[in-house]
Design a protein that fits this description.
By secondary structure, this protein is an all-alpha fold. The protein has two domains: about 90 residues, Rna Polymerase Sigma Factor, Chain: A; about 90 residues, Winged helix-like DNA-binding domain superfamily/Winged helix DNA-binding domain (Arc Repressor Mutant, subunit A), CATH 1.10.10.10. The chain contains eight helices and no strands.
Length: about 200
């Protein structure tokens, strides 16, 4: 058993026993990352706080079911809970609107332009994703960051697979334009600074 595994097992044991210091340590170690995960799905700060609070309650309640699967597995397990809670919140708030393209009008994957995030700071990328409409943002996050298939996304969100595909296509289209605009502004700024 590795040192990290021992440490994780001991932390979980203490949390299961209701040790508030262990809970605070877990919160301090993971809240930044889990906030960023939640912010990929939800843009309102108050909603993020609510979802995180609910997520931490669920994490602490279910932590005895966690199975250590290597470095980072506790963080990944916790992130899945946050994603599920964020999706539950979005569905409950009725903030996702999905439009479906007819099958014959669906984009050809070979023609789909992929956003080129190279040389774009992570904070700018996150902000671009956060400004997507809720349906587009949710599908983009599930497909690209959570690596879910359109079939899985359709099941999670209770939508048609074609709706998932069209939401992803539109999200990518918006991101491509946002990246072009970002680079244009950056180039303009650099020219003005060079004068």
């Amino acid at each position: 058993m590795t040192k990290e595994e021992n440490s994780v097992r001991e932390l979980i044991r203490q949390i299961v026993q209701g040790n508030r210091v262990a809970m605070k340590r877990f919160y301090d170690d993971h809240s930044g990352y889990l906030t960023a995960v939640c912010a990929r799905y939800i843009s309102n700060r108050e909603d993020i706080k609510d979802v995180l609070q609910e997520s931490f309650l669920k994490i602490f309640k279910a932590i005895q079911t966690f199975e250590y699967k290597g470095a980072g597995s506790l963080r990944a397990w916790s992130a899945r809970i946050v994603v599920n809670e964020a999706l539950k919140h979005i569905r409950a708030a009725g903030k996702m609107q999905f439009t479906s393209l007819p099958e014959w009008d669906l984009p050809n994957p070979e023609e789909d332009r992929e956003p080129d995030f190279e040389d774009i700071p992570a904070s700018a990328i996150l902000e671009m994703i956060r400004t997507l409409p809720p349906g587009y943002r949710t599908v983009f996050n599930l497909y690209v960051l959570e690596q879910k298939s359109h079939k899985e996304i359709a099941s999670i969100l209770n939508i048609a697979e074609s709706s998932s595909a069209s939401q992803l296509h539109r999200a990518k289209g918006i991101l491509v334009k946002e990246i072009e605009l970002y680079r244009l502004k950056k180039k303009h700024y650099e020219r003005s600074m060079a004068r």
